[in-house]
Each structure stands twice: as C-alpha cells, then as structure tokens.
Amino acid sequence: MKYKIRKDLSIHSGDTILYRIERLSDGLIGGYVESESNLSQKGNCWVGGDAKVYGEARVFEDAQVYGEAIVFDGAEIFGNPWVFGDARVCGNSKIYNNAQVYGNAEVFDNARVYGFAKVYENAEVYDNAEVFCSALVYGSAKVFGKAQIFGNSWVFGDARVCGNAKVSKYGECVVINNLKHTITCMPNRIQIGCETWQSFEEFEKNYQEIFKKHNYTGKEIEITYLFVKAAMMGMETKPKTIKLTHEGREFEIDVEKAKELGILK
After folding, report:
1. Which structural domain, as residue segments, surrounds residue 19?
2. What letter does residue 206 receive in the DSSP assignment?
3. Would you give the end-to-end CA distance of the chain in angstroms?
4. In what order do the strands lie in the sheet with 183-186?
5. Which of 70, 90, 163, 194 is deepest in the core (most CB within 10 A)?
6. Which candidate, 71, 76, 110, 111, places its Cα nearest to that of 96?
7. Burial zone of 208 (CB within 10 Å; 0-12 exposed, 13-18 middle, 19+ buried)
8. Which of 129, 166, 123 is closest to 144 using CA atoms?
9. Could you say which of 170, 195, 222 is where a domain stops?
C-alpha cells in the first residue's frame, strides 16, 4: 500500500462523503476520494491538493489529479496525464497517455483526450468527441458530436466543432467573432450559429436565404459572406492578404491585421 484513507478528515460532496488520503512513505496529505477504488495503490498515480475523485471514477498508473479538479461518475484517468486547476472530468470520459486537462475545462460523456493533447481554459469536450496527438483545445471552444481534433491543430476562441468534423492541422479551424453569430470555418465544414454547410460551394447556394431567416440586414449578409470566403481561401493558400470581389466591389483583407483586431482567430 502507498496511501491510507483518513476517516477523520472528511467532507461532503452532495450526499457523498469524501476522505483525505495520506501517503505512507512521507505522511503527505493528499486530496479526497470516496474509497480505495478511486485511486490505485499501484504506480505513481496521486490525487493531491483539494482535488476530488469519487463515484465509479478511477485514477491509476501514473496519472496525477490535483488542484481543485473533480473526477467523478465513471471517468478514467490513466497513463501519465495531468488533470488540475478547476477541471472537471466525468461521465464515461477517459484522459490518458500524456494528455493534460486544466483551467476550467470540462471533459464528459464519452469523450477521449489522449496523446499529448491539452484541453484548458473554459473549453469543453463531450459526446463522443476525441482530442489527441498534440492538439490544443482552449478558450471557450466546444468539441462535441463525433468530432476529432488531432495532429498539431489548435481549436480556440468561441469555436464549435461537431458532427463528424475532423481538424488535423494548425490553420484548419478559423473562428470569426464580432459578427452577429460566431462563425467556425474548416476545410470540410462551415458553422454559423446552428446552421452548418459541408463546403463553401454549398454555403454559396443558400447563405442569403438562411441569413434573411435569421434577420440579417443586407450589409450583415455581405460582410459575413466576405469573411467566410476569406477564411476558406486562407486555409487553402495562407496568403498575407486576400483580395475578394463581391457584387462588382473589390476588397482586400490583411489576415494578420484581422487576427490582431479579433475578427479572425
């Protein structure tokens, strides 16, 4: 055994009683568990700080859970991952390999975060989504459905990646803020609010009708169209500036300046 449960150091989490743990080798007081089934007696795994692990959740192998993190339901943390800060991991989700979940991030349902992936700040990963390899999901981004974020991709800001979407490289997900709705553009998907298109060609066919349904003005439709086109073209060619012609008028957008202004992220 590497730790013991301190029955004299308990708190309530709802109707559940949680107990501090104490490492036998040096007397270090750790975080809280409901029972020994939550934290393996083998390996270097540990629950520290004021972190809580309870329900059917399991922490094993060399996993580390600390800070104010909470792991519960049937979640599993194993391998060599870190879960810390105010992160919440629950449902039947799994965090493993060398992944990190921290800040106010939440991973739940049947989601998976693994490899060297990081989910942090206020990001959420849920449903059957997966984040792996060296991918980063942060800000207020949400990844859900059966979406997969992998490779060296970054998903951040107010991005929403869902359905069967796959993002595998940095620059494959562009988020446009400061318009009427947050716009998320990927090579195989455009999402504006609750509306989605599978390609820019599909978007061009009915975007005016859709926007009018959501009470966009003519100017708002024009601006939104231009930014979506710029984002989709930028993912293909990655130029410093993008020239667009719309209804006989030419526009040139400096991609880096747009990013500085918070329009493109």
Report:
1. 1-73
2. H
3. 49
4. 174-176, 183-186, 189-192, 195-197
5. 70
6. 76
7. middle
8. 129
9. 170
Residue 39 per-residue DSSP state: B
Residue reference for tokens 């990927």 = 186
89 in a domain, yes or no? Answer: no
Strand 142-143 to 160-161 pairing: parallel
Q: Are residues 252 and 180 in the same domain?
A: yes
Element (H, E) at 4: strand 3-13
The reply to whether 112 and 178 lie within a common domain is no
With H, G, I as helix, E, B as strand and everything else as coil, classify residue 233.
helix
In a domain, 200, yes or no: yes
Report if residue 83 sits inside a domain.
Answer: no
- b vs e for 98-137, b when ≥16 Cβ sit within 10 Å of the residue's Cβ? ebbbbbebbbbbebbbbbebbbbbebbbbbebbbbbebbb
Residues 253 and 195 in one domain: yes
The domain tally of the chain equals 3
Q: What is the pLDDT along the chain (265 residues), one digit of tens a residue?
A: 999 999 999 999 999 999 999 999 999 999 999 999 999 999 999 999 999 999 999 999 999 999 999 999 999 999 999 999 999 999 999 999 999 999 999 999 999 999 999 999 999 999 999 999 889 999 999 999 998 998 888 888 888 888 777 787 666 677 666 567 777 887 778 888 778 888 888 999 998 998 888 888 888 888 888 878 877 776 654 444 444 444 555 555 555 555 554 544 4
What tokens appear for 12 in the block?
């309530």
Q: Does one domain contain both 178 and 263?
A: yes
251: its two tokens: 């526009």
In a shared domain, residues 151 and 187: no
Contact 154, 160 (CB under 8 A): no
Question: Given the structure tokens 């024009």, which residue do they identify?
Answer: 222
Q: Which of 148, 170, 192 is the last residue of a domain?
A: 170
